[in-house]
């Protein structure tokens, strides 16, 4: 029986005292058990089971039906903090409502993702908000405040930010290291997390799979050095799934799991997500680490105390006082309206030569064509749709079904092999004879990949016509006339059994591989298993990859094309007044978690479709519905109108139709730079946005569409920009007027740049934004309070944040490139001055420029070093180093085998390291160096050397 007299159940006491009381009552075994994601109940104290982790990126995910809002990148495109906060409230309420009926639903939500959209080929770009830290921070603060709720004591849900830190690649994501120099760290990556934590609406963070500067994120010293110093609030660090084991199994950072688990716990990880619901493995590692003296009970208690504080904040022990207990706000009219409003605000009008808006008129017909024209796509972190609206649905509703012509544009094909034609057995669920989009129409929840009760495909005299879609890179899906995708179950047989591509390993994608020496012949590779399609006695199946003696050899197919998709699209386009081509991606294919993209290009099949539509009808609009940007340079030059929207959730089609028809004036803005070509991109693993000129902050080329870009159907003027310094703020204001013919929204964007700044500072950076709605002819004074600190940067010379004295230009406009008004403000600031090398020396990672190097770990627990990244060696440049009245020697602190050459104004010192002692055996090596005054220092690194620090010996010091 629960004893309600115990202090930890006394709501009059502070959470800290209650957590301490409960902690003292738990046995060691009970405390260790709480360190796993799935903590068991403690029945003797009346404690229920508890789990960390409930996905809620843009709605409740993985727990059945829920309101599905636009993807996170779409929420970023709204540039509307207030709207996103309301969405956070709705999602939090649905989490609570679902929790009331299903105790599998957790209240510790793993959302939002605040990794910055640094590189547009990152497979998980759909999960982030923007490439800019200020915009990302603002949207994250809004969403987490909504999820948290307004009660001063109890939390609606407890948000955990993902993924700490500098994580933008899926390729080898658990073994690659992001080389992040201090300026990028402090100005860019940390900023995205910091503001949400300081706002008090975040319960913790989740470390990313990757390493940063050679050290796994789950061992990051920054968890204590930065994260937990931003707030006095208790923060929980939840590991990513399987990451604790990665420390040994894939990263080989430690030799034993006991060492790795102890190191993660000491670094600040509190909850271990590993081995699913089986907690025995991880708790066993904790026990072993304790027994070996790698940790003590204080380490365990520190983590458990944070977890108990989290549970207290969620009202677990105060059900009668918890204001969010018993919430029933699920799939309400308000939530449905909010999903539509969000989808409308996320639409970005990229180009418009006057074709739009396309108001419905008598006799006006619209052709809706393209591979996503009748699709409402979900992603890995979506809930199951209760309602859906495809572009075809929305346009039929708005223009009238009789005025809308449809053609998907998939190729209609038949496959023939030696055994006959590939055919799908007739079933009750496949009576339609014409290929139709698999995501359109009503969902049949029984049509899931993995079913084995449906008959497999066979080969015979009758051919089944399939809809073939090439999603790019030769990745195909094949679909029956009834909308069922060919899929492969665990038994290896190919069946028409999935309603859409999906799953952690997608089983619905194939690739046609030409057979050498056989004209037009192909083998069909199943990408999910890596095996080829063969014809076996029991039906068509996939041979196990690498199987030396498969039961049946890979079938050789001739592919007969009944109709090209572009031909169907051309017919539909020619029969209509205006054409809307809907192109884009499937979020489960070619760019998703575990898979980066390889190109910005639109898949060739979709290129052919918009070209065919435009050739048949020049009044062609291209709508890109995608998780990420495309380099559609020719389409942008050719077509009269282009729009982009992320996958817009359950109301996507209705929202698009309202924008196209003019019921809504679009005002979404790009949260990422849209580059013109792949050649504009740095390497995916190059995290130095300064050195490689990434994002709008540093990119000097001409993008296809700039960060913040977006058009509307009315006109706005900017005037009377003023900036007044008020202590620690610069108060900026301007007058915005809607001078156009209709009501609409404008997203006012405020940027700053330092006049006459040194190279390496941002070309301009966002310091404020506001989405404002104005009636036609109306005006409004828009104000931005800008902290003076926002004008600054990280000063590597002195290891601090600094605002340089000087003149700063404030630029306001409709995008980062469309600046309408500007003004200047003078700031006294504190000059950074030259590097005080006699006092501070030079940390290797504090360089101003580098070539051919990467940052690595100085030790397993803290510090950075620099090593060459190529055989030819690397170089570092440290600008304006002050040697005062002179130095006589340099001490090179380094490890490894190789050489370090320090050159200053003609003088040089060369140190050879013999190796031995391991990569962390950092030792000082002295060499003569005579120099005085202020000069640049160049350091050449050769071989396997790992340079940590340079110290200089004053000429005044005795030898």
CATH superfamily of the largest domain: Glycoside hydrolase, family 3, N-terminal domain
User: Largest sheet, if any?
Assistant: 10 strands, antiparallel
Q: Can you give the mean pLDDT? A: 95
Number of H- or I-type helical stretches: 19
**N-end to C-end Cα span:** 76 Å
Low-confidence stretches: 430-447
Give the beta-strand count: 50
Beta-strand content: 25-35%
Specify the overall morphology.
globular
Write up this protein.
There is one protein chain. The chain is an alpha+beta fold and 959 residues long. It has 5 domains: 16-51 and 158-313, Alpha-Beta Barrel (TIM Barrel); 345-408 and 566-680, Rossmann fold (3-Layer(aba) Sandwich); 419-555, Trefoil (Trefoil (Acidic Fibroblast Growth Factor, subunit A)), CATH 2.80.10; 714-827, Immunoglobulin-like, CATH 2.60.40; 837-954, Jelly Rolls (Sandwich), CATH 2.60.120. The protein is built from 19 helices and 50 strands. The strands form 13 sheets. Strands 16, 17, 18, 19, 20, 23, 24, 25, 26 and 27 form a 10-stranded antiparallel sheet that branches. A 6-stranded mixed sheet has the order 12-30-29-28-13-15, sandwiched between helices. Strands 3-5-6-8-11 form a 5-stranded parallel sheet. Helix 5 (133-148) runs parallel beside helix 6, helix 9 packs across helix 10 (280-291) and helix 13 packs across helix 17 (652-661). One of its GO terms (molecular function) is carbohydrate binding. Residues 434-444 have a biased composition (Low complexity). Residues 835-954 form the Cellulose binding type IV domain. Residues 425-444 are annotated as: Disordered. It comes from Streptomyces fulvorobeus.
């Amino acid at each position: 029986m629960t004893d309600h007299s115990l202090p930890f159940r006394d709501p009059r006491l502070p959470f800290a005292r209650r957590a301490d009381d409960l902690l003292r009552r738990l046995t060691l075994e009970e405390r260790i058990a709480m360190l796993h994601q799935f903590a068991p109940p403690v029945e003797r104290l009346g404690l229920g089971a508890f789990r960390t982790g409930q996905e809620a990126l843009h709605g409740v995910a993985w727990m059945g039906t829920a309101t599905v809002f636009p993807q996170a990148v779409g929420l970023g495109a709204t540039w509307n903090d207030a709207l996103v906060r309301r969405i956070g409230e709705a999602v939090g309420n649905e989490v609570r409502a679902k929790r009331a009926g299903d105790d599998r639903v957790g209240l510790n939500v793993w959302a939002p993702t605040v990794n910055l959209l640094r590189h547009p080929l990152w497979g998980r770009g759909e999960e982030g908000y923007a490439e800019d830290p200020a915009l990302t921070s603002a949207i994250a603060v809004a969403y987490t405040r909504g999820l948290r709720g307004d009660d001063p004591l109890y939390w609606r849900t407890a948000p955990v930010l993902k993924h700490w830190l500098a994580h933008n690649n899926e390729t080898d994501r658990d073994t690659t290291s992001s080389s992040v120099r201090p300026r990028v760290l402090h100005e860019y990556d940390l900023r995205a997390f910091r503001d949400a934590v300081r706002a008090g609406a975040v319960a913790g963070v989740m470390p990313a799979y990757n390493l940063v500067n050679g050290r796994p994120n789950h061992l990051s010293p920054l968890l204590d050095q930065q994260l937990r110093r931003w707030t006095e609030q208790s923060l929980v660090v939840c590991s990513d799934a399987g990451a604790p084991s990665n420390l040994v199994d894939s990263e080989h950072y430690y030799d034993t799991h006991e060492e790795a688990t102890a190191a993660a716990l000491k670094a600040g990880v509190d909850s271990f997500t590993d081995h699913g619901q089986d907690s025995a493995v991880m708790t066993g590692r904790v026990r072993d680490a304790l027994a070996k003296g790698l940790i003590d009970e204080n380490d365990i208690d520190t983590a458990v105390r944070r977890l108990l504080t989290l549970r207290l904040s969620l009202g677990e022990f105060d059900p009668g006082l918890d204001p969010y207990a018993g919430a029933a706000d699920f799939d309400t009219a308000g939530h449905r309206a909010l999903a539509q409003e969000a989808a409308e605000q996320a639409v970005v009008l990229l180009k418009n030569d006057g074709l739009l808006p396309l108001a419905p008129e008598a006799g006006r017909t619209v052709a809706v064509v393209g591979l996503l024209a009748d699709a409402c796509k979900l992603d890995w972190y979506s809930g199951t749709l209760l309602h859906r609206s495809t572009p075809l649905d929305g346009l039929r509703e708005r223009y009238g079904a009789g005025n809308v012509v449809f053609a998907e544009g998939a190729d209609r094909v038949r496959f023939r092999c030696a055994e006959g034609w590939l055919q799908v057995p007739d079933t009750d669920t496949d009576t339609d004879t014409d290929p139709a989009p698999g995501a359109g129409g009503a969902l049949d929840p029984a049509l899931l990949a993995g079913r084995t009760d449906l008959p497999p495909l066979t080969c015979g005299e009758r051919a089944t016509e399939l809809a073939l879609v090439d999603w790019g890179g030769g990745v195909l899906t094949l679909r029956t006339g009834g909308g069922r995708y060919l899929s492969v179950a665990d038994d290896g047989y190919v069946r028409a059994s999935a309603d859409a591509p999906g799953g952690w390993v997608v089983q619905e994608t194939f690739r046609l591989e030409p057979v050498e020496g056989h004209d037009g012949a192909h083998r069909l590779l199943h990408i999910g298993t890596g095996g080829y399609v063969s014809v076996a006695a029991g039906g068509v199946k996939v041979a196990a990859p690498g199987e030396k003696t498969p039961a049946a050899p890979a079938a050789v197919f001739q592919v007969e094309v009944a109709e090209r998709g572009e031909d169907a699209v051309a017919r539909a386009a020619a029969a209509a007044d205006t054409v809307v081509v809907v192109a884009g991606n499937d979020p489960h294919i070619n760019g998703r978690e575990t898979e980066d993209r390889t190109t910005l290009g639109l898949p060739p099949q979709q290129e052919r479709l918009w070209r065919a539509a435009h050739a048949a009808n020049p009044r062609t609009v291209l709508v890109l519905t995608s998780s990420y940007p495309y380099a559609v340079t020719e389409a942008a030059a050719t077509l009269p109108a282009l729009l982009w929207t992320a996958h817009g959730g359950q109301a996507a089609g209705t929202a698009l139709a309202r924008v196209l028809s003019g019921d809504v004036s679009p005002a979404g803005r790009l949260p990422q730079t849209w580059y013109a070509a792949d050649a504009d991109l740095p390497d995916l693993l190059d995290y130095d946005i300064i050195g490689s000129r990434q994002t709008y902050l540093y990119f000097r080329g001409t993008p296809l569409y700039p960060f913040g870009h977006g058009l509307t159907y009315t006109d706005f003027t900017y005037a009377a920009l003023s900036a007044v310094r008020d202590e620690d703020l610069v108060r900026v204001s301007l007058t915005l007027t809607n001078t156009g013919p209709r009501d609409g929204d404008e997203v006012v964007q405020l940027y700053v740049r330092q006049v006459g700044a040194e190279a390496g500072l941002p070309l301009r950076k966002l310091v404020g934004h506001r989405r404002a709605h104005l009636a036609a002819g109306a005006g409004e004074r828009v104000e931005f309070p800008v902290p003076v600190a926002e004008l600054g940067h990280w000063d590597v010379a002195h290891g601090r944040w600094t605002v340089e004295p000087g003149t700063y230009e404030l630029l306001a406009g409709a995008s980062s490139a469309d600046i309408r008004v500007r003004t200047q403000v003078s700031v006294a600031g504190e000059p950074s001055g030259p590097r005080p090398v006699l006092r501070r020396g030079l940390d290797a990672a504090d360089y101003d420029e580098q070539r051919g190097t990467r940052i690595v770990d100085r030790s397993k627990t803290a510090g950075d070093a620099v090593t060459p990244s190529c055989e030819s060696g690397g170089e570092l440049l440290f600008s304006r180093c002050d040697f005062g009245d002179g130095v006589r020697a340099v001490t090179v602190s380094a490890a490894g085998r190789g050489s370090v050459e320090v050159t200053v104004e003609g003088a040089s010192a060369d140190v050879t390291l013999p190796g031995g002692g391991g990569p962390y055996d950092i030792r000082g090596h002295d060499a003569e160096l005579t120099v005085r005054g202020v000069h640049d220092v160049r350091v050449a690194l050769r071989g396997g050397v790992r340079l940590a620090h340079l110290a200089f010996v004053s000429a005044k010091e005795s030898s």
